[in-house]
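DM from R.C. (forwarded with permission)

"hey, sorry to bug you on a friday — could you get me a structure for this? deadline for the figure draft is monday and I only need the backbone to look sensible"
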Amino acid sequence: MDVHQLHKLIEKNWPVTIRDIQIISQKGKWIVAVHCSEGQFVVKGEKTLLQDPEEVCHFASELRAVLPVPLYIKTVNRTYTVVEEELTFTLEQQLEGVEVPILKTYHIEQIALALAKMHLFSETTKRQLNQPTTWSLFGGNKTEAIGDYDENERSFWEVKEAFQNEMLFSQVEEAYNTLRASLQAVWSQLPKGATQGDFCPYNMYFNDNRLTALFDFNLAGDEVLVNECIAVAVYVCWHYPYEGELLPNERYDVFIETYENYRKRSPLEKRCSDALFRIIRAFRYDRVDLGIERGDASGFLEETLAILTQVTDEKLSLRIEEPQ
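My reply, with the result:
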């Protein structure tokens, strides 16, 4: 498909008249900015892993009640999507703002607040998409499929392969397995709901200190809410460029406090948060990749063990199951 064919595809399926097309990406997928008589839009065409792209677009449209999500435009056939040459195409409203390459503290607060709004929306509306996300834990790792693939466990396996003969590794393994087992025992009891699936700054626009757009729902699915909360917090507080005076752990406290001020976690979610933080922080894939690349086994394992076994201010027990 070339630009001329794409032009015809858009005008055939959506009620718009194109004035200009600007290609943003053409590497395995189409992302183009489209200037039309009816307004500014973005057309996306990509192979999708979604079981039901129509349902995901419907969820995104509903989410506009609480977040700045682009309006998905329905086709002349009243669908959200068009499939052509094995690519699923959507037309969505272009929102204002820019991607932020370096976060400041107020960006972190905005991300935490937006995540809490999405979680509360899905929790109160009982919205589910009946498909997993890439954040998911305890999938089994038998295949590469989303929901089966457990990145946290695979990162642990990478550490084991690289450092299993080191003196400290057995302690790391014991601490990790203890935390995982405690979480797995209560996993099915935790609140779960529909999420955007890739809640990261590169899928957001900001205008000064205000979040103005949340987009890219191509990995949307159902997730354990507290799992996504902690995973996003770890990513933006430790692994995304930051400009400001707060240390990562201080940024994390700001994130959790902001989230909690909008959506209160349940008692069980709070008990799980500590164990989740430890395993996600210790075995986030980019931390693991860098630790293996550096080759400082002793230093990496010492730090990993400290993360896994730290005593929090609340002196939470490793055992987090509901009291009998």
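R.C.: lifesaver. The radius of gyration is 21 Å.
me: no worries. The chain is about 45% helix and 15% strand.
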